[in-house]
């Protein structure tokens, strides 16, 4: 099978050697993003019209996007820090593609804020982003700063990625057409990032099971921040109560595949 034939879902089914050979390359990255980014302007097709948004809904959307910008800032800073910590060159190459992805995510979300009429997106993100995602960012960067490769990779490419994947996917289903397209493009990248996190960390933990205890402790600490962020976003997007459990499922599935029970 050629790299360009691989669907994101199939990335998860590759054995570690095939994953490293195929996915951890700029070849794979370019062929992946080409399909859904060519012809777009800041993450959406230029011919999509802005749908009318009631002022209170617009305010809620801006708050949600500011939280996403804080999450993507954490992902950009985390991924770039992980390049230096990665124990092998294949991982460094993959992480460099992830840095590009995260920079793009931040850019298109900041641009979406401007399209919605926010005069100073930078200041608005600082004003509106919630405490849970700020604390998550602080904790992630502290792990990176201390050089804790396994723990930082878990926080970044399993917990943060699974949270973003789940929230963005759920939000895209009920968003205005432009926001939906922007989020759908981001979700495709986040799926690739989770695949890398699971694959690299899974292999590492099989070789060094002594790291499991540290990861379990970290997971218990970070779960609360993830769930707080879920809660805040759910409130702002207006997801009905009976659909809310779905939000945590992908997160728990990603963590569960690495052998960490909830
Ligand atoms: Fe991202
Ligand atoms: Fe990501």
Describe the global form. Answer: globular
Count of alpha and pi helical runs: 11
Largest sheet, if any? Answer: none
Strand runs, count: 0
Low-pLDDT stretches are 1-5
- Terminal CA distance: 36 Å
Cα-based radius of gyration, to the nearest Å: 18 Å
SSE topology string: HHHHHHHHHHH
Mean pLDDT: 87
The portion of residues assigned to helices is: over 70%
Derived from helix and strand composition plus strand pairing, the structural class reads mainly alpha
Bound molecules: fe (ii) ion
**Strand percentage:** under 5%
Question: Could you list some keywords that capture this structure?
Answer:
binds fe (ii) ion; 11 helices; 76% helix; 262 residues; single chain; mainly alpha
Written account of the structure:
The chain is globular. It contains 11 helices and no strands. It has 262 residues and is an all-alpha fold. Helix 4 runs antiparallel to helix 8, helix 8 runs parallel beside helix 10 and helix 8 packs antiparallel against helix 11. The site of one fe (ii) ion has 7 residues, from helix 5 and helix 9. One fe (ii) ion binds next to helix 4, helix 5 and helix 9.
What's this entry about, in short?
The protein has 262 residues and is mainly alpha-helical.
SSE blueprint and pairings:
Layout lengths: L7 H4 L4 H7 L3 H12 L17 H31 L3 H27 L5 H8 L2 H15 L3 H24 L4 H31 L4 H26 L7 H13 L5
Helix pairs in contact: 4-5, 4-6, 4-7, 4-8, 4-10, 5-9, 7-8, 7-10, 8-9, 8-10, 8-11
The site of one fe (ii) ion has 7 residues, from helix 5 and helix 9.
């Amino acid at each position: 099978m050629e790299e360009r034939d691989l669907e994101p879902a199939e990335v998860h089914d590759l054995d570690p050697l095939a994953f490293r050979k195929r996915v951890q390359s700029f070849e794979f990255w370019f062929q992946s993003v080409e399909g859904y980014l060519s012809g777009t302007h800041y993450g959406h097709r230029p011919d999509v019209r802005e749908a009318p948004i009631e002022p209170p809904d617009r305010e809620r959307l801006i708050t949600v996007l500011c939280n996403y910008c804080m999450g993507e800032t954490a992902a950009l800073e985390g991924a770039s820090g992980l390049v230096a910590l990665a124990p092998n060159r294949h991982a460094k190459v993959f992480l460099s593609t992830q840095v590009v992805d995260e920079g793009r995510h931040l850019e298109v979300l900041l641009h979406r804020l401007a399209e919605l009429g926010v005069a100073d997106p930078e200041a608005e993100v600082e004003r509106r982003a919630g405490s849970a995602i700020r604390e998550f960012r602080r904790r992630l960067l502290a792990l990176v700063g201390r050089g804790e490769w396994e723990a930082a990779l878990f926080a970044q490419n399993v917990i943060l990625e699974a949270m973003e994947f789940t929230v963005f996917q759920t939000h895209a289903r009920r968003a205005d057409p432009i926001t939906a397209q922007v989020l759908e493009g981001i979700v495709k990248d986040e799926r690739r990032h989770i695949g890398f996190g699971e694959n690299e960390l899974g292999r590492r933990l099989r070789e060094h099971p002594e790291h499991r205890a540290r990861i379990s402790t970290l997971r218990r600490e970070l779960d609360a921040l993830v769930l707080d962020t879920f809660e805040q976003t759910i409130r702002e997007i207006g997801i009905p109560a009976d659909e809310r459990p779905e939000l945590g499922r992908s997160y728990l599935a990603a963590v569960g595949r690495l052998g960490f029970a909830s």
